[in-house]
User: Which sequence fits this backbone?
């Protein structure tokens, strides 16, 4: 379980590092490489904000953990409800 947790934290951190520079070209990134968590940039979001990739991963993992696994219809319904909450209410986003 710890490895899974560590992987999710790693995903969120890497995503937060990439959000401010998403879609910049390789030459720009060579001149100003990403060496830590910064803010603003591409989406004008504060430091530490992750993208929809992490939000939907968190929504998925919440469903799996709360339903003790993935191999049942209840988990799928819960995950789908989480996705709707993400879309309509900003649940699982860094800014709420």
Assistant:
């Amino acid at each position: 379980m710890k490895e899974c947790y560590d992987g999710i934290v790693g995903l969120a951190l890497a995503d937060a590092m990439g959000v401010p520079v998403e879609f910049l070209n390789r030459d720009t990134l060579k001149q100003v490489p990403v060496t830590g968590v910064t803010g603003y940039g591409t989406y004008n979001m504060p430091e530490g904000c992750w993208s929809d990739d992490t939000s939907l991963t968190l929504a998925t993992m919440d469903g799996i953990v709360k339903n003790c696994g993935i191999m049942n219809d209840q988990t799928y319904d819960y995950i789908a409800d989480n996705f709707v909450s993400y879309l309509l209410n900003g649940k699982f986003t860094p800014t709420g």
